[in-house]
Specification:
Layout: H1 6-29, H2 33-83, H3 91-134
Helix pairs in contact: 1-2
């Protein structure tokens, strides 16, 4: 099934928006119960439908662009294999590289964290040893019995 054309969706969205706006303006110009109720209910329906069609048109356009970009990258990669040039990877090759890069980054982060912990433990031990060596004996002398 071929998706609808974007200009047609945008045209319908604009028409629905104008109908909803006309109902709202009518309720302001003639503040009786019927126009007000119609503006509150039908105006809301028309406005929501128009917004939905607009979003649908945007989604279709974005997906179409992504599909075209993927097709172009795959065609470039295929032509590079034929000519022997080394140019961009296919999207499938890129998808396999990203998890490997993520794993390598995680391993590097874990190694840095372990090294930092080891250095902190060593520095703490050295600081305690330096304190004990530098601190004078502060214990009071024992007093001998009465004079």
């Amino acid at each position: 099934m071929k998706p609808p054309k974007i200009p047609a969706l945008l045209l319908i969205s604009a028409i629905l928006t104008l109908i909803g706006l006309a109902l709202m303006v009518w309720s302001v110009l003639q503040p009786t119960p019927l126009p007000t109720i119609l503006a509150m209910s039908l105006g809301q329906v028309f406005g929501t439908a128009a917004f939905g069609l607009f979003l649908f048109a945007i989604i279709i356009d974005l997906r179409r662009d992504a599909r075209e970009r993927k097709r172009m990258l795959d065609a470039m990669a295929e032509s590079n294999k034929v000519t022997g040039l080394v140019l961009p990877l296919t999207t499938d090759e890129i998808a396999t590289i990203k998890p490997a890069q993520a794993e390598a980054a995680k391993n590097a982060t874990d190694k840095v964290a372990k090294d930092a912990t080891a250095l902190a433990v060593k520095a703490t031990a050295e600081a305690r040893e330096a304190e004990t060596q530098a601190a004078p004996d502060t214990t009071p002398p024992k007093e001998s019995g009465p004079p």
